[in-house]
Amino acid sequence: MKYFLLPLGCQMNRSDTERVRTVLHGMGFTETDKEEEATILGVIACSVRQKGIDKVYSRILKWNEMKRNHNCITFVSGCILPADRERFVKLFDLVFTMNELPDLPDMIRQYGVFIPTKNNDSVIDTDAETRLIASIPNIHNVILQKNGAPYINKVVNPSANMDRFWVIEPDHLSDFEAFIPIQNGCNKFCTYCAVPYTRGREVSRKSEDIIAELKELVDKGYKSITLLGQNVNSYGLDKKGEEINFAELLRRIGEYGDASGKEFWVYFTSPHPRDMSDEVIEVISQYKCLGKQIHLPIQSGDDNMLQRMNRKHTLEDYRHIIHTIRRLLPEATIFTDIIVGFTGETEEEFENSRKAMEEFKYNMAYIAQYSVRPGAVASSWADDVPKAKKRERYHILTDELMKHSLVYNQGLIGKTQKVLVTGYDRKNGYLTGHTEGKIVIRFQSRDKSLIGQIVTVKVTSATALSIEGIIM
Predict the structure, then answer these.
(1) In whole angstroms, what separates CA 313 from the centre of its chain?
(2) How far apart are CA 186 and CA 197, in angstroms?
(3) Cut 0.85: pTM above it
(4) Strands (E), 182-282
(5) Quick one: which of 40, 229, 285, 432 could link to 425 by a disulfide (CB 3.0–4.6 Å)?
């Protein structure tokens, strides 16, 4: 029997998907990329942007239509706003939060899929065809009952009991790039953001478990490992006196990297400027395995706008961090997130964002045109910047980004770069990958054995968003 998963949204959702895969494999299901073959159809949703939710509705309408001729169970999990969750329970057969993932086998059993256990162990042999007996009714719009109530997560904090989720070993989607969740939830409550309402309050994972997972990945040959959290640099603050802070976590990882003698890069995303200490940057500068690439969201370059966004930092605070990075990590690339068209954004406020991009000369910027998310504080405010104006500002900032990233990339011509090879390029006869600073690069080669390896490439040409070279 087979399952199909549709992960949407950020890297955290991709990481969550890897643990969902583990649970489904443990039940004896195998993965398929053909929806019509699947007995279990699942979405790992993202309520952060309306576009992501629109994709969920589009898919479940298709799946419910499929049920006319195909017996299957549908579920949705991931980042889901309470309002979206209430709607989804009428459309999906199962709606649950990630901290309930260990209960998924019982949920499915209650829907009529018999999954035999072995000595009361929830991990099942993988020969699904001989060990699983399916008797799945057509259950469109039927709500699973649990203790007499609809099975829909009603916990106040979706971060509660996350240890039950983190203990699940992920079934990684890559053999050389991996994500390690170190934290869940967010306490910042930016006015445009829905994450505190979809993920709950901040909860830090045990540092010993994080480091153990990282060591296991390195032993298996993984070359790129990203520490994940909604606000990674507040790691440990919810467990003061019980847990180390983020800088110390990086230090211990760096010490292990030096002692291991192995070549790998460790990244993290996303930090919040308010919690980004000089100590974190100093630690990164001291250890070879800590990747020299910093993702530091700015969201706006205007202090009035930052205050309306409830970002809890000023442009000068942000400038200090950038200057510290440039001083201690001159080789580091800097990525950012920025929003255009947030409620009430004036021409002057937007111009200050453009000036900030000109000043900080980012290597990459993820520019978002503001869209209202129900549940966030700003959802009650007027979305008063016209869509045409948002698009115009988006293009202006994109042009600003391209100008500075091109200058940086052209400065790499003639230099050698360590490159993690990630796959085949669209250009025939070429492989692609990224530098330690996560600059996309391609080079001529058909040697597929290089995929997943770190090689040395000499840069020969550059565009605004990528470089090209020859392998040394």
Answers:
(1) 24
(2) 9
(3) yes
(4) 183-184, 203-204, 224-228, 265-269
(5) 432
| Residue spans per domain, the chain | 2-144, 163-410, 416-471
How are strands ordered across the β-sheet holding 333-340? 293-295, 333-340, 364-369
Answer CATH for 416-471 from 2.60.120, 2.20.25, 3.40.50, 2.40.50: 2.40.50
Position 59 confidence tier, pLDDT thresholds 50, 70, 90: very high
Q: Give tens-digit pLDDT for 36-53.
A: 999 999 999 987 777 888
- Give strand pairing partners of 145: 150
CA–CA dist 323, 173 (Å, integer)? 36
What stretches of 58-160 adopt beta strand conformation (E)?
73-79, 94-95, 113-114, 133-134, 145-146, 149-150
| 314 token code pair | 């000023």
At the second CATH level, the architecture of 163-410 is: Alpha-Beta Horseshoe (3.80)
pLDDT(154) > 50: no
Instruction: Report, as an integer, the average pLDDT of 155-175.
Output: 82
| 289 phi/psi in degrees, rounded to 5 | -80, -15
CA-closest candidate to residue 217, choices 281, 172, 271, 184: 172
**Helix and strand totals (H; E) in the chain:** 14, 22
